[in-house]
Amino acid sequence: MLLVAALFFAVFLYFFLKKNRTKNDKSFPQPPGNILLGHILYITSTTHILDVAKKNFSYGNTVTLRFGPDICPIRKGLVTQDYNLIQFILNSRKLIKKSENYIFLKKWLGNGLLISDGDYWKRHRKILTPAFHFEILKNFVEVFEAAGDVLMEKLQKYDEVATVDLDILITLYTLDVICETAMGTKINAQSGQNIAYVESVRNMCKTVIERAFSPIKVFDQLYWLTGDYYKQQKALKILHDDVLSISELREEVDTFMFEGHDTTASGICFALYCLADHPEVQEKVFQEQKEIFEDWKNPETTYSDLQKMKYLECVLKETLRLYPSVPVIGRYTTEEMNFDGYVIPKNTNIVIFIYGLHRNPDYFPEPEKFKPERFENFNNSLPFSYIPFSAGPRNCIGQKFAMLEMKSVISKIVRQFEIKPTVPRHEVQLSPETVLKSGNGVKVTLKKRD
């Protein structure tokens, strides 16, 4: 009897969903999915996300995905790597609300700049923007360099060791930098203090993404029954401990602490990984350093010196093309939108697949190849084809800060070490855990330069 009832309910739900599909479902292709759970079961690990996304895009550059029935907190929406739709979304001053999947970050980041919207977001964005003026950024170079010197000391012991995993070393460096620059506080993460913070960030990022793809964890009513809930609570206690109690300020501090170190660490790690794989590129970076600095090993680096590193900047841009620190971003429609003959209903989640956009051969010939030279004369006639820091009103407030920090530490490492691939070569397992990571670390070999 129970089986009959279950089958009846399944059939009823299928036809109910089919009947109530919006015009949008008919307009944009929908890959085959489970009748009840849609596409939510197709991703069993964060390392599967990119491969599943590529398969879905075989149906079109914009597809409709469904994550469970309509009672699911994150129901259905569009996933796109279509240039015109991305331009339409990111240029819009109406489409500034983040998609519903960001809700899982709310207990951590509250109503900080990453998640907030409307007048609240506009007010905070206006208040915080002057903090990234280039005159202020100049003063941060000393912090980049001092933290980088500590990192160099740490890396000395890995000279000609078969493998060094850059992930944790670089993350601790960027954590030291963001705390001293944004908060004026030295936390000495590279000296072994506050490592629990880094691990908590990592756990939060992973559990947040895994929760979005779980038919059980996606519901608050069921989430507390899982082990991830208690792992999250433990991480939140560490992340919120000893932070300023004024709620709005704490939320922005939490946001800056997360976005200001984890995204930058990702970019640095993947850049060094690419340099290890491409010795001819690394040699050009090294020669540029020697041209800029007379004492090329241990110079006193200034803001002006970092601005001269044009080829290294191309390397970083190409790295962020192949390995964007934030590979997907999301928006949410608060009203019905019309785009190129399509109707996008109100309350639609739209996911922008930056990772796929950046590997489109229409915009980047030989897209899988690492070719920094493509940015030496980059044609910006299609500005939304390359958006590692997003674009439009909600672009990344700290992108200039991030580029300066990455230049500072990579130039220092290249001057001190030759970076080589491991033997056998380490293959990264890309895992979008809010920030793009490698599920098996980012491993290279270092050889001290004479």
Automatic annotation (TrEMBL):
<feature type="binding site" description="axial binding residue">
    <location>
        <position position="396"/>
    </location>
    <ligand>
        <name>heme</name>
    </ligand>
</feature>
<dbReference type="InterPro" id="IPR002401">
    <property type="entry name" value="Cyt_P450_E_grp-I"/>
</dbReference>
<dbReference type="InterPro" id="IPR050196">
    <property type="entry name" value="Cytochrome_P450_Monoox"/>
</dbReference>
<dbReference type="InterPro" id="IPR036396">
    <property type="entry name" value="Cyt_P450_sf"/>
</dbReference>
<comment type="similarity">
    <text>Belongs to the cytochrome P450 family.</text>
</comment>
<keyword id="KW-0560">Oxidoreductase</keyword>
<keyword id="KW-0408">Iron</keyword>
<dbReference type="GO" id="GO:0005506">
    <property type="term" value="F:iron ion binding"/>
</dbReference>
<dbReference type="GO" id="GO:0004497">
    <property type="term" value="F:monooxygenase activity"/>
</dbReference>
<keyword id="KW-0503">Monooxygenase</keyword>
<protein>
    <recommendedName>
        <fullName>Cytochrome P450</fullName>
    </recommendedName>
</protein>
<keyword id="KW-0479">Metal-binding</keyword>
<dbReference type="InterPro" id="IPR001128">
    <property type="entry name" value="Cyt_P450"/>
</dbReference>
<dbReference type="GO" id="GO:0016705">
    <property type="term" value="F:oxidoreductase activity, acting on paired donors, with incorporation or reduction of molecular oxygen"/>
</dbReference>
<dbReference type="InterPro" id="IPR017972">
    <property type="entry name" value="Cyt_P450_CS"/>
</dbReference>
<dbReference type="Pfam" id="PF00067">
    <property type="entry name" value="p450"/>
</dbReference>
<keyword id="KW-0349">Heme</keyword>
<dbReference type="GO" id="GO:0020037">
    <property type="term" value="F:heme binding"/>
</dbReference>
